[in-house]
Model the fold of this input.
Amino acid sequence: MKEKRSPSQLEALWKESDMSNGRKVDAMVVILRTNGCCWVRHGGCTMCGYREASLTDVTEDDLLKQLEQALSKYKGEPFVKIYTSGSFLDDNEVPPEIRRRFFEAFSDCERILFESRPEFITPESLADVPKTVTIALGLESSDPDVLERSVHKGFTPEDIRRAGTLIKENGLMVRTYLLLKPPFMTEDMAIEDAVRSARFADEFSDEISVNPLNVQRGTYVERLWKRGEFRSPWIWSLMEVFRQLSGTVHSRLMSSPSGGGAARGVHNCGECDRRALDAVERFSYTQDLGDLDVECGCREKWLAYRESEGILGSPADLDRDFENDLILRM
Done:
């Protein structure tokens, strides 16, 4: 029997590293339990499992109790990230007075980050947001068809451009999230889409976070994955995106993959995954392509995999179909 989750308890809290004012700093990450993303009522995004963190009876008092818990764990970290299962600027998810209390509680922080869908980015909603805030926007892809059919995001790239531009005009920073390998894409298509999307986002972003798709439970993508119709991207593909973008965009490029090295997350052969993920982390701080220099024999398999997908015209999990032994017959 599933344990009942208390609406006054944080979903999660942990510490990690990130960048602030050009240097690597400690960050506290807070995941709030809220009444959930407004887009879930319209079916939600194909890859998003965060509805599991949503409830239907979270009150303002519950949110304040969660704030108290966060403050009890706060040790003066310069960077605080506040996540919900939807949008921090959605009044129905986090009421304005509660947002104000969060801003006051962490007023001494160098940097605060939260996420929002573009429809909640307005001159009115930004009026009381401190200048230390970075707003994260989940663009995912600059291709309208990908957003509509593959991701079911519920907005257009132009909606994100408008929101990002308005955020910048208000003196705030923007971190844009891109999704590496939405469903129905081959590795080559995914690389091309991520590079093109980063160039689109660069004009209104300070940071671009490339997030490889992680197969979350209870999602449409999980059904594809279980049927062998989707493979999470290779770490080599993530590195290739960075190689193509490095030196051509002004935004800081970064990635902190969820589920990296697991079958559901971005992975290579298993032998080099940890080294490759460590290389991605180093690059995210230094922006030095030399940090991406990792050697493993599976890189040749990745190249063959991409070629095979092109020949077959399919994004199916070829590792599974060919029992982990990819052979090209030409």
Notes: The first strand starts at residue 12 and ends at 20.
